[in-house]
Structures are given as structure tokens and as C-alpha cells.
Design a protein that fits this description.
alpha+beta; 8 strands; 6-stranded antiparallel beta sheet; two-stranded antiparallel ribbon
């Protein structure tokens, strides 16, 4: 038995208490000195983009633009921002040229800058906002028949 009378061998209780106190103080200091962003909880209800399967997505790596046939999809999306009013990314728009037809066509890559905007309430999910507009800004050439390097349309899903 040691001098503390607690039946433990080794350091006296006073030394163990001091060590525990120092560990608690170090943990508290680490928690206080951590960056505020690391401590802030993620937004439990971020604005979403709804995919072809009516699933909410946040910062998707891929997004199908042509739900009916899958002949147009955004891939390799790298999101720069995802906010309450807009979200911006860079990636590639893979578009089927449908030559001689869409079954035998070739998917061609088009570098693109993507902006999601105009959040509105998602009718089937009260309290959830979803982006309703997508803007595609082609940074090289645009796919036919678009020919316009800046193309905006509504997301209806």
C-alpha cells in the first residue's frame, strides 16, 4: 500500500491528481484554441440540387442533365462554393453527339463552369430549399446545337 492509503502502488494520489488536472487543462485549451470553423456544426438543412431520382444532392461529383436518356451529364465536378443563394463548380459536360443516332453516338467532353442558383422551397420536402436554375458556361467550345457558350435553363426535378 502506498502513502495515500488507496491500495495502489506507485505515485501518491496527489501526483496522480495533478497529472489528471493537467490533462484536463490541456484538453480544454485545445478545444478553446481550435479554429471556429472547425467547431461550427455543418448546416443541417443546406440548399440542395435534386437529381433525376428525386434525391437531394449537396456538392455532387456527377449530375445528369438529361434525365430521359442520360445523354448529357456533368462529371468531375469540383465545387468552389456551395451557399444559400448560389453554388459554383468546374467540371466537364459529357454530351452524346448522337451520330448516327444516340445509341451509336460518342460522348464528347466540354469543359464547363457550372452555377446553380435561385433556390426555392422543394414542394415535396417542407423546409428544404432546392436550386432551380443551372447555368453552363463553356470554357472552350460548346456542344452542338447549343453554339452558345453561356447557356441557362430551369431545373424541373
Amino acid at each position: 500500500m502506498d502513502a495515500s492509503g488507496d491500495g495502489r502502488r506507485g505515485r501518491p494520489a496527489r501526483a496522480r491528481g495533478r497529472r489528471a488536472g493537467l490533462l484536463c487543462a490541456a484538453a480544454a485549451l485545445a478545444a478553446v484554441s481550435a479554429p471556429a470553423a472547425a467547431q461550427a456544426p455543418a448546416d443541417p438543412y443546406p440548399v440542395v440540387v435534386v437529381d433525376c431520382f428525386s434525391a437531394a444532392q449537396v456538392r455532387p461529383e456527377e449530375y445528369i442533365l438529361a434525365c430521359g436518356d442520360g445523354n448529357n451529364r456533368l462529371v468531375g465536378l469540383r465545387w468552389d462554393t456551395w451557399g444559400a443563394s448560389t453554388a459554383t463548380a468546374t467540371g466537364t459536360d459529357m454530351v452524346n453527339d448522337c451520330r448516327p443516332d444516340c445509341v451509336q453516338g460518342t460522348f464528347r467532353p466540354y469543359p464547363v463552369r457550372v452555377t446553380l442558383s435561385k433556390p426555392r422551397p422543394w414542394p415535396t420536402h417542407p423546409g428544404v430549399q432546392r436550386f432551380t436554375v443551372v447555368r453552363l458556361l463553356y470554357t472552350d467550345t460548346a456542344p452542338e446545337p447549343v453554339h452558345n457558350k453561356d447557356f441557362t435553363y430551369k431545373l424541373v426535378y
